[in-house]
Specification:
Length: about 150
């Protein structure tokens, strides 16, 4: 960044000025709302634009398979159907959403984000292990693991 632009955008301590943080936050929120609106009116199961490359190439479900359909169902209030498409996403989504909202609010109001540094590494490693184990177990062709594969209820 040139010195003139940096002086215009940043404060003396290096933080982005409040006005620019507010504009950036509003832009990100607008994009998220536009994406949610698009997903609300365009079902992923009726289109070919949202495919899983891993499933298309290997025939195995990845940990994210069914996430688009699950988000579509959540937007329509069909929580059980969303759970059948991707149970891990439905269980983790409130936690991830809360974490992202807290980080965004802290950055918006203070110009710094310190919540990420407070999370112990063992929690991140546990989440990674759960996602990997989930990805393996949802491909086991035996009861009760077949319940983890993306399934339409109706």
């Amino acid at each position: 960044m040139t010195q003139k632009i940096k002086h215009y955008i940043c404060e003396k301590d290096g933080r982005i000025k409040w006005q620019f943080r507010l504009i950036l936050s509003a832009a990100i929120l607008s994009i998220m709302l536009a994406e949610s609106r698009f997903l609300y009116y365009h079902s992923p199961k009726d289109t070919k634009w949202l495919i899983c490359i891993i499933y298309a190439l290997t025939g195995y479900y990845c940990p994210g398979c069914g996430a688009g359909r699950a988000c579509y169902c959540i937007l329509h209030g069909q929580i059980y159907q969303a759970f059948r498409y991707n149970p891990l996403l439905v269980l983790l989504l409130p936690w991830i959403g809360t974490y992202l909202a807290l980080c965004a609010c802290q950055w918006l109001f203070t110009g710094r984000e310190s919540i990420s540094r407070r999370i112990p590494m063992w929690i991140l490693w546990t989440i990674l292990a759960v996602v990997l184990i989930y990805g393996v177990l949802r491909n086991v062709n035996a009861y009760p693991f077949v319940l983890l594969s993306p399934t339409r209820v109706r």
